[in-house]
């Protein structure tokens, strides 16, 4: 199978590495690539890490503002999830997430595979929005 060779990119220096994971065959779609829903679940988890440090309690994902699958994800890729808070509102926090893959047998070279923006809301015991402490 041929593949367009893409140059390796530098990893972000202004974002936090919040998750690393390697997808397995059980995470594949019918094409043999990794199922987009699996990637979205990992991005949702990765995006929650920085807000969790401010919210310090229950929160919920209220919106996926943008989600771009730039390149397929493959079995055996080492995925690195970088995140950055872009907005803190009264009850919500919006995060940018970028995902980079090190392909099998090309570890050390990074390709951006996904980028997304998600918003999380701090919620109280009744599931209602609550203010985020300054
Ligand atoms: C999250 C939830 C509690 C928010 O309740 P709500 O009554 O819609 O909240 P509000 O309209 O008061 O908005 C709360 C915050 O979310 C933000 N928000 C609401 N809808 C949004 C949207 N579509 N996009 C971005 N931000 C949004 C608001 O701007 C506000 O932020 P701020 O206080 O920082 O200004 C409620 O929508 C909910 O329970 N949703 C389901 C969450 C869930 O189950 N997530 C998992 C998906 S399976």
TrEMBL record:
<dbReference type="GO" id="GO:0052816">
    <property type="term" value="F:long-chain fatty acyl-CoA hydrolase activity"/>
</dbReference>
<dbReference type="InterPro" id="IPR040170">
    <property type="entry name" value="Cytosol_ACT"/>
</dbReference>
<dbReference type="InterPro" id="IPR006683">
    <property type="entry name" value="Thioestr_dom"/>
</dbReference>
<dbReference type="Pfam" id="PF03061">
    <property type="entry name" value="4HBT"/>
</dbReference>
<comment type="similarity">
    <text>Belongs to the acyl coenzyme A hydrolase family.</text>
</comment>
<keyword id="KW-0378">Hydrolase</keyword>
<dbReference type="GO" id="GO:0006637">
    <property type="term" value="P:acyl-CoA metabolic process"/>
</dbReference>
<dbReference type="InterPro" id="IPR029069">
    <property type="entry name" value="HotDog_dom_sf"/>
</dbReference>
<dbReference type="InterPro" id="IPR033120">
    <property type="entry name" value="HOTDOG_ACOT"/>
</dbReference>
<dbReference type="GO" id="GO:0009062">
    <property type="term" value="P:fatty acid catabolic process"/>
</dbReference>
<dbReference type="GO" id="GO:0005829">
    <property type="term" value="C:cytosol"/>
</dbReference>
<feature type="domain" description="HotDog ACOT-type">
    <location>
        <begin position="13"/>
        <end position="126"/>
    </location>
</feature>
<protein>
    <submittedName>
        <fullName>Acyl-CoA thioesterase</fullName>
    </submittedName>
</protein>
């Amino acid at each position: 199978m041929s593949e367009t060779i893409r140059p390796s990119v530098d990893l972000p220096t202004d974002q936090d590495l919040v998750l690393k994971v390697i997808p397995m065959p059980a995470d594949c779609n019918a094409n043999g690539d990794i199922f987009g829903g699996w990637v979205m679940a990992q991005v949702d988890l990765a995006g929650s890490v920085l807000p969790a440090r401010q919210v310090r309690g229950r929160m919920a994902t209220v919106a996926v503002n943008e989600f771009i699958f730039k390149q397929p994800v493959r079995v055996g890729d080492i995925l690195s999830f970088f995140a950055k808070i872009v907005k803190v509102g009264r009850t919500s926090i919006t995060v940018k997430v970028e995902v980079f893959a090190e392909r099998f047998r090309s570890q050390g070279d990074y390709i951006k595979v996904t980028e997304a923006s998600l918003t999380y809301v701090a919620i109280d015991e009744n599931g209602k929005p609550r203010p985020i402490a300054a």
